[in-house]
Amino acid sequence: MQKSSKDHCFEDLKRRILTTDLPPGGDLDEATLSALYGISRTPLREVLQRLAGEGFVRLETNRGAKVASMNLIAMRTFFQTAPMVYANIGRLAAENRTTEQIEDLTATQRDLTAAIRRGDVTAAALSNHAFHHVIGQMAHNPYLMACLERLLIDHTRLSQTFYRATGAEDQARIGTAASQHDALIAAISAAEPDRVIALTLQHWDLSRDRMERFVRPDPLPVDVISQKDPHHAL
Amino acid sequence: MQKSSKDHCFEDLKRRILTTDLPPGGDLDEATLSALYGISRTPLREVLQRLAGEGFVRLETNRGAKVASMNLIAMRTFFQTAPMVYANIGRLAAENRTTEQIEDLTATQRDLTAAIRRGDVTAAALSNHAFHHVIGQMAHNPYLMACLERLLIDHTRLSQTFYRATGAEDQARIGTAASQHDALIAAISAAEPDRVIALTLQHWDLSRDRMERFVRPDPLPVDVISQKDPHHAL
DNA sequence: GCGCTTGCTTTTGTGTACACTTTGTGCACA
DNA sequence: TGTGCACAAAGTGTACACAAAAGCAAGCGC
Question: Residue A231 pLDDT more than 50?
Answer without folding.
Answer: no
